Amino acid sequence: MSSKFDSYQKRRLQSSYISVVISIALVLFMVGILGLVLLKSTLVANRVKEKVAISLFLKDEVTKKQINTFKTSLQEEEFTKRIIYTSKTQAAKKYSKEIGEDFLQFLGKNPLKNGIDIYLKANFVTPEKIQELETRFLKNAFVADVSYDKPLITLLTKNIKRISFWLLVVSSFFGLMAIILINSSIRLSVYSKRFNIKTMQMVGATKSFIRRPFIWRSIKLGMIGAFLALIGLAFVIYYVDKYAPSLALIKDYVTLSYLVGGVVLSAFIITWFSTFLATQRFLNLQTDELYY
Question: What is the pTM of this model?
Fold first, then answer.
């Protein structure tokens, strides 16, 4: 009879552990998906920003040597992602192709100017910083005029801030739900051992000694859950990269390292903290309170 009861208790305990692992894995999988969206949305936003250019139109008296020196100095600036130089001859050919006729035949001369398009780094694409750059370039002796799409930059900055805010809110909400769900699963697991906890306490075991095996077991279960969550995320990343190769998920090692580190660290912190609170609660209960 005793062996059957022990076998039943063992199966029940294993079932409890499996449910904890599955709960942790599912929650961390959802958190990982949200983390991936949050990380990639920042990268996508930066790519969009880096397509914004500020155009400098140079004075006619500026020589080729001066232009080359000016281009070199611009390339070395901290705000520069890349630059594209377009001569007035190239600009005229491009414009003639766009309108479908050679406008130089009517004008007799080329009214266009040599230009340099500066594609900025993402953190410099804000209305305030571009305004500062415009003011700086207009004071330059080589620059005749500065042009950029001010309404587009204002709208882009506003929308990116709004999207980032709501992504952060949603991620925070699901992160809180993850903590609550994992905490509930671990509390149920510890609840089944509440009498063991109190018995050890009654024979003189310290609280830290009693907590230690529960914490280590929960951390192990959390790591297993994290591993399963990462396997699920790997399949998602593979298929997203297959059908949306422009995101370059598999080759984005920085994002992937942040994702893996975030999932593992979340599993460790949440399981440790939840187990600590759960065991502490039962350690502080009186013996007669364990039955409620």
Answer: 0.63
